[in-house]
Amino acid sequence: MNCGNNQAFWAFALRLYAVPGAQDALLTVQDSHGGDVMAVLWALAASTEGRRLSQSDIAAYTNATAAAAQSAIECRLVRRRLKSDPEPAYKAAKADELAAERAVAASAPDPFEAGALSPDHANELAASNLALFLDALTPPVPPALRKTLIGLPTAQKA
Question: Which long-range contacts does 30-36 make (Cβ < 8 Å, 24+ apart)?
């Protein structure tokens, strides 16, 4: 279930994205493996609250965010095309993309209530939750990148 506009998830996503190394790792998943940055952040958010996700949780996320995620993809393509254009056009496209990502967060189920509570360590939960998204990507996400992603929530709390 979504908690209105998912402000807590959005705040988590922004904090985690700002962790040193997070942006590079997340964009590598997106640009080199076709992954969804917001899906990765959602899976990591769930793990920080001791939540183990299932395939049905992933399906709920994917269904709830489909329209907003498509809009974010379209905004990203526009921003990339405008990269060499005048700065105001690029900045406007970048703001549109961020707003579209915010819409993904707002439409997502609440990651802090998704899945089932688990006594497992947060890193084990992060690995399990991420695998649900990352295992479907081509080319496969290498172990070193997975390890970096699993460590991000820990780095975020430091």
Answer: 32/139, 33/134, 33/137, 33/138, 33/139, 33/140, 33/141, 34/137, 34/138, 35/133, 35/134, 35/137, 35/141, 36/69, 36/133
What are the pLDDT digits (tens) for 112-155?
999 999 999 999 999 999 999 999 999 999 999 999 999 998 77
Helix (H) or strand (E) holding 60: helix 55-81
SS3 85: coil
% helix, strand, coil for the chain, step of 5: 70, 5, 25
Neighbours of 88 (CB within 10 A): 9
Rounded to an integer, what distance in angstroms lies between the CA atom of residue 9 and that of residue 109? Answer: 10
Question: Rounded to whole angstroms, how far apart are CA atoms 59 and 115?
Answer: 12
Judge contact between 137 and 34, C-beta under 8 A.
Answer: yes
DSSP state for residue 32 in the 8-state scheme:
H
Q: 44-83: string of b/e by CB count within 10 Å (b at 16+)?
A: bbbbbbbbbbeeebbebbeebbeebbebbeebbeebeebe
